[in-house]
């Protein structure tokens, strides 16, 4: 299934450097991104309340949010793990579906093993 999804998203990877696309994205999302520090305050304040196993996945070429935002997000969540995908942009599951799926399987398996050991 991931293979079919990846083939449908080839355009996402192919148009990453298109200047017209970049202008369109800035036009659509610019106002929200400018106000993000204010909009994100409540979310950021609640990250410490997350008690479930968490994997924060980030692309090092995310044009919206630098990797430091991902690191800071992961650091604010107790026991969160952080995965930086090199050469990947903002939509990590579309750009790297196999790597994202593998990371989720790894974390899920580790959590399941810990849960089974506690029983």
Total beta-strand segments: 2
Domain unit count: 1
The CATH architecture classification is 3-Layer(aba) Sandwich
Q: Gyration radius, to the nearest Å? A: 17 Å
Strand order of the largest sheet: 1-2
**CATH class designation:** Alpha Beta
**Low-pLDDT residue spans:** 1-15
The total count of helices amounts to 7
Give the termini separation: 33 Å
Structure description:
The protein has helices at 2-8, 10-14, 19-34, 36-46, 67-76, 92-95, 97-118; strands at 55-59, 81-85. It has a single domain, classed as Rossmann fold. It is mainly α. Strands 1-2 form a two-stranded parallel ribbon. It is flat and about 55 Å long. It contains 7 helices and 2 strands. The N and C termini lie far apart (33 Å).
Give a short overview.
The protein has 119 residues and is mainly alpha-helical.
Lay out the secondary structure:
Elements: H1 2-8, H2 10-14, H3 19-34, H4 36-46, E1 55-59, H5 67-76, E2 81-85, H6 92-95, H7 97-118
Parallel strand pairs: 1-2
Task: Name some characteristics of this structure.
119 residues, Rossmann fold, two-stranded parallel sheet, disordered N terminus
